[in-house]
């Protein structure tokens, strides 16, 4: 590998790296190369291809024609798209804070050392993460359901009339519950891992100053894990905007409550696979990708700036 | 009240590169050496509510897997019905429809071994390169990968399908395996982990001894990366084992379905005209699907938790 290195490469190197590795500047490619090649094939090529697709339109008469930005214009005026976006935005505003809040509280409780059976709590609350979305959704869907669900059991036993969780009014909240169940433990673990690496000396200093538990949390723990909080928030935003599995699977159990354009991602899927509108579907996917990237980027900037 | 000042002046761990690397990796365990705080019953009970929330659905699944279809409808969800049908359900799951469940299980294993195994390999090699080498174009590689992580994976799915369909790859195992090979999160984790776990001096020593890069990697680096590798492997295994969207769009032939798609098709069967309802098999199949992953997480706890702890340092 070292012999492949052209002398010019050494001069073009951007920042001055540690001198000791000068000789080997191309060897790194031997290790990163395979990743980059596959990455280009499954990430960059589809992005490029979908941008290309979004500029064309396939019509019964005239075949495929170049239409410039017409598809984008259409998408921006598409009520079905905006409604689905509004739905996931509502989901984002309600479900993500609840999920991250519970995860943070549990992580702080575990980290406080005041729990009996801490390790049992940690692993058990994390376990749902290992359950596939399909199984989680089927399981909760059955429990929600009237056929052999828990809701009907409870209604029978107590004579109550709990509303059907799969009715159109409640189904979004029911999906929120499934997603929360799946990812509380995962986020808890991210927070908990970050909490565990805070140097112990900080707590000792706080104790000498007579700071209470709450003060330690707000003044030491939360600032120290800001990075983890930002990362978890960004992951949750990305996850919410591409919500698909849960509504798609739940649709079989609640066909009247979930439409084929329930979320933006469900909409692109339906456009492509039921409607055969590949070009328009690619356009909607690109717009959703852009929106997600912008929001994730803003969250990252804001989250990190507070730390300065 | 000088504490807040001291803390505020100390930025988040993200920028503190000054601490030694070895103590940091062992950080989590060190904490327990201090005085133990008083345990709290109240806090335990409150956290117990979240624990119940996490475990009750799994208990429901285990209990329901012991019921016949008729028992499911008749009995209370969180308690057993009269007849214990777990073994019947399991054997029926594996034999129903000419044993198609076994086929789905083997498909899933194939996708996991090749997809998650390959993803871990690429992430380990790439993470090591980013952590320990300077090479031309490193910044560009880094920027592109970080940028692409923010692109929603499913936004890529439809274009990937169209591209694969042009290339004749759809409805083959490759359509599921190839996209699974890239795990940006895995690459990130390995990069952070390799930075901490592999001392530069050791690499220098190996190079001075005249060991080739390949040999250095296998004999010196790989053993040091083991906890990180287990962590990345577990998370890529979960991602591929649980994958639903990608196979859903890529595969038409039920013979290539993974377990997730298969279970969904069994569930959907009840809703179609003339379809036989097999909810007991859907439930038992679900249980069989999650057992291997839960077992893996429980058995490998020690490794992935230390791997994650190291990964969180850099966030």
Automatic annotation (TrEMBL), chain A:
Asked if the record carries the keyword Ribonucleoprotein, the reply is no
The record's subcellular location field reads: Cell membrane
For membrane topology, the record states: Multi-pass membrane protein
Q: Where is this region: Disordered?
A: 1-23
Cell cycle as UniProt keyword: no
From the UniProt record, give one GO term of the biological process aspect.
transmembrane transport
Segments spanning the bilayer are 29-52, 88-108, 120-143, 170-192, 224-244, 280-299
Q: Where is the ABC transmembrane type-1 domain?
A: 81-299
Q: Which GO terms describe its cellular component?
A: plasma membrane
Which controlled-vocabulary keywords does the entry list?
Cell membrane, Membrane, Sugar transport, Transmembrane, Transmembrane helix, Transport
- Coiled-coil-forming residues are none
The protein depicted here goes by the name: Sugar transport system permease
Q: Can you name the source organism?
A: Streptomyces himastatinicus ATCC 53653
Automatic annotation (TrEMBL), chain B:
Q: Which GO terms describe its biological process?
A: transmembrane transport
Topology within the bilayer = Multi-pass membrane protein
UniProt keyword Transport, yes or no? yes
Region Disordered: start-end pairs: 1-32
Q: Does the keyword Endoplasmic reticulum apply?
A: no
Against InterPro entries, the record matches this protein to:
MetI-like, MetI-like_sf
Q: Where in the cell is it found?
A: Cell membrane
Q: One matching Pfam family, short form?
A: BPD_transp_1
Q: Which residues form the ABC transmembrane type-1 domain?
A: 105-300
Annotated SUPFAM superfamilies: MetI-like (SSF161098)
Principal location? membrane
Task: Give the domain of life.
Answer: Bacteria
| UniProt-listed CDD domains | TM_PBP2 (cd06261)
Q: Which residues cross the membrane?
A: 40-63, 104-128, 140-162, 174-195, 216-241, 277-300
Instruction: Write out the entry's keywords from A to Z.
Output: Cell membrane, Membrane, Sugar transport, Transmembrane, Transmembrane helix, Transport
Q: GO cellular component annotations, sorted alphabetically?
A: plasma membrane
Give the family from UniProt.
Belongs to the binding-protein-dependent transport system permease family.
State the name under which the record lists this protein.
Putative ABC-type sugar transport system, permease component
| Species assigned in the record | Streptomyces himastatinicus ATCC 53653
């Amino acid at each position: 590998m070292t012999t492949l290195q052209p002398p010019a490469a050494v001069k073009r190197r951007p920042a001055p790296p540690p001198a000791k590795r000068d000789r080997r500047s191309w060897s790194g490619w031997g290790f990163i190369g395979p990743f980059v090649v596959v990455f280009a094939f499954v990430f960059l090529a589809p992005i490029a291809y979908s941008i290309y697709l979004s500029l064309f339109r396939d019509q019964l008469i005239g075949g495929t024609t170049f239409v410039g930005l017409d598809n984008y214009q259409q998408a921006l005026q598409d009520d079905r798209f905006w409604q689905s976006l509004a739905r996931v935005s509502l989901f984002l505003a309600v479900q993500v804070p609840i999920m991250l809040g519970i995860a943070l509280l549990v992580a702080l409780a575990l980290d406080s050392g005041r729990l009996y059976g801490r390790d049992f709590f940690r692993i058990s609350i994390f376990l749902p993460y290992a359950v596939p979305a399909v199984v989680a959704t089927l399981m909760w869907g059955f429990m929600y359901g009237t056929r052999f669900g828990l809701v009907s059991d409870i209604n029978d036993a107590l004579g109550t009339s709990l509303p059907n969780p799969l009715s159109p009014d409640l189904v979004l909240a029911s999906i929120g519950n499934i997603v929360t169940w799946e990812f509380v433990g995962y986020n808890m673990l991210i927070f908990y891992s970050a909490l565990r690496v805070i140097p112990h000396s900080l707590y000792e200093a706080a104790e000498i100053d007579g700071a209470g538990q709450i003060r330690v949390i707000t003044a030491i723990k939360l600032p120290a894990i800001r990075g983890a909080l930002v990362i978890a928030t960004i992951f949750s935003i990305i996850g919410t905007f591409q919500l698909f599995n849960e509504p798609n699977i739940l649709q079989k159990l609640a066909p009247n409550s979930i439409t084929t354009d329930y979320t933006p991602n469900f909409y692109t899927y339906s456009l492509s696979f039921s409607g055969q509108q590949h070009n328009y579907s690619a356009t909607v996917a690109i717009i959703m990708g852009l929106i997600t990237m912008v929001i994730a980027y803003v969250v990252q900037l804001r989250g990190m700036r507070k730390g300065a | 009240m000088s504490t807040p000042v001291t803390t505020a002046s100390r930025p988040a761990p993200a920028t503190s590169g000054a601490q030694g690397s070895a103590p940091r990796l062992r950080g989590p365990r060190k904490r327990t050496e201090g005085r133990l705080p008083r345990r709290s019953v109240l806090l335990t009970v409150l956290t117990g509510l979240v624990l119940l929330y996490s475990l009750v659905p799994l208990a429901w699944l285990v209990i329901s897997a012991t019921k016949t279809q008729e028992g499911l409808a008749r009995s209370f969800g969180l308690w057993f019905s009269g007849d214990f049908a777990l073994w019947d359900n399991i054997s029926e799951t594996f034999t129903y429809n000419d044993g198609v469940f076994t086929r789905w299980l083997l498909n899933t294993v194939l996708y996991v071994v090749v997809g998650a195994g390959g993803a871990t390999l690429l992430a380990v090699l790439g993470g090591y390169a980013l952590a320990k080498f300077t090479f031309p174009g490193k910044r560009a590689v880094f920027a592109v990968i970080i940028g692409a992580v923010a692109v929603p994976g499913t936004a890529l799915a439809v274009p990937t399908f169209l591209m694969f369909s042009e290339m004749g790859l759809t409805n083959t195992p490759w359509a599921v395996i190839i996209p699974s090979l890239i795990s940006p999160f895995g690459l990130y984790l390995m990069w952070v982990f390799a930075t901490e776990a592999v001392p530069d001096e050791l690499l220098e020593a190996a190079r001075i001894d005249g060991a080739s890069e390949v040999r250095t990697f296998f004999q010196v680096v790989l053993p040091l990366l083991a906890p990180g590798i287990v962590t990345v492997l577990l998370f890529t295994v979960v991602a591929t084992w649980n994958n639903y969207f990608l196979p859903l769009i890529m595969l038409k032939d039920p013979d290539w379905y993974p377990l997730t798609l298969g279970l969904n098709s069994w569930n959907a069967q009840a809703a179609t005209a003339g379809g036989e309802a097999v909810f007991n098999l859907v439930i038992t199949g679900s249980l069989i699907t999650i057992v291997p992953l839960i077992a893996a997480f429980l058995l490998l706890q020690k490794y992935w938790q230390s791997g994650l702890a190291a990964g969180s340092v850099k966030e």
